[in-house]
Amino acid sequence: MNRILIVAEHDGSHLNAATAKCVSCAVQVPDAQVDVVVLGSAAVAAQAATLAGVAQVVQVANPANDSQLAAVLAPQIAALVREGYTHVFGPSTTFGKDLMPRVAALLDAPQLSDIMAVESDRRFRRPIYAGNVVLIVEVEADQPVIVATVRTASFGEVTRDGSATVLVRTLQVALPSHTRFVSMTQANTDRPDLQTAATVVSGGRALGSADQFKLIEQLAATLGAAVGASRAAVDAGYAPNELQVGQTGKIISPQLYIAVGISGAIQHMTGIKDAKTIVAINKDADAPIFESADLGLVGDLFSILPELTQRLSSR
Ligand SMILES: Cc1cc2nc3c(=O)[nH]c(=O)nc-3n(C[C@H](O)[C@H](O)[C@H](O)COP(=O)(O)OP(=O)(O)OC[C@H]3O[C@@H](n4cnc5c(N)ncnc54)[C@H](O)[C@@H]3O)c2cc1C
Fold first, then answer.
1. Which residues of the chain are modeled with pLDDT < 70?
2. Residue 82: phi, psi to the nearest 5?
3. Residues 98 and 234 in one domain
4. Which residue's CA is minimally distant from atom 7 of ligand 1?
5. What pTM was estimated for this model as a whole?
6. Confidence (pLDDT) at 190
């Protein structure tokens, strides 16, 4: 039997939706028991226990986990996995990409990145070349543990009607002192999280300045949406780095993606391949983004956006 451990992503009080998507992937592995480890509070463990398909939640209570440093979490996860897990999955988010390679290194195990489909307990699909090629990768039979990150855009969330048992553990693991939490600076925004938002409004190079990028923020505020940006907009300093969508930014799967003044380069489109509806606003009717858009509006964003925002907010 396969035993899969999923590392929960959370902010100390709320379970991130990425965890429910990892469970969705794990339950497709044949003959598997799926557990979740919460290196954090009882409140988060209780949320994880409601995820359908989860057998057991292991809550590791340790104040050292408050700051969720990958260097501190990794040895604890590795210790748990050594108790008999065959797979350990984390989300392919910034959190998971930082953490899971450390877990793999500590276990001397192979890491699979960006699982998008399960073929068997050792065989998975993953995208490469900005999603243009899909690889089938198989871990050799002599490897006792498989470490993987799950491409969250490829899986829906499991329902929250489960009732897993919660096991509270303390682990006797030496934690590293070479990495210490100093402080955290968070962007002061009341916008939804880009990686889990149902609606995202993104702006590109065409916005022309950080000041004009506020047109994107205003439309997003009206729609209760998250804000995203193309790499060109980020590189030009119109939007912060963490808002970049695409191959080297965030991979997202919102219900609605509105791309404003974005040409539709392959590296951008790979980040929104799984968006349900794409709306493009661009003044060039031949812009490549219109090939992927469900709805397109050809025109100047500087006249369209203020009118659209005004009409939507007066609804
Ligand atoms: C290895 C690699 C990784 C990359 N990773 C990413 C990534 O993660 N994310 C990403 O986005 N890019 C990425 N890129 C860059 C990518 O190739 C493009 O350069 C980038 O996406 C272009 O951004 P853009 O669409 O905003 O700008 P442009 O390509 O310059 O497009 C601007 C668009 O705005 C339109 N426009 C101009 N003025 C107006 C107006 N007034 N009203 C309406 N429309 C207007 C134009 O017609 C044009 O279509 C990567 C590139 C490489 C090589």
1. 188
2. -65, -15
3. no
4. 246
5. 0.85
6. 77
Does any domain span residue 177? Answer: no
> What is the reported pLDDT for 185?
81
Tally: H helices and E strands in the chain: 9, 15
Tell me, yes or no, whether 132 and 208 share the same domain.
no
Positive or negative, the Cα torsion across 299, 302, 303, 306?
positive
Centre of ligand 1 to C-alpha 63, Å, is 43
Q: Are residues 155 and 288 in the same domain?
A: no
**How many structural domains does the chain have?**
2
Residue nearest to atom 28 of ligand 1 (CA): 263
User: What CATH number does residue 265 fall under?
Assistant: 3.40.50.1220
- Tell me which of 248, 258, 302 to substitute to probe ligand 1's pocket, judged by most ligand atoms within 8 Å of the beta carbon: 248
Tell me how far apart the alpha carbons of residues 291 and 122 are, in angstroms, rounded to a whole number.
Answer: 36
d(CA 232, ligand 1 centre) in Å? 5
Residue to substitute in 200, 283, 286, 291 for testing ligand 1 pocket (most ligand atoms within 8 angstroms of CB): 283
For residues 249 and 208, state if they share a domain: yes
The span from the CA of 124 to the CA of 218, in Å, is 41
Q: For 179-207, what is each residue's pLDDT tens digit?
A: 989 998 877 677 888 988 999 999 999 99
Is the CB of residue 135 less than 8 Å from the CB of residue 117? no
Residues with CB under 6 A from ligand 1: 204-206, 230-233, 244-249, 261-263, 265, 267-268, 271, 282-284, 287, 300-302
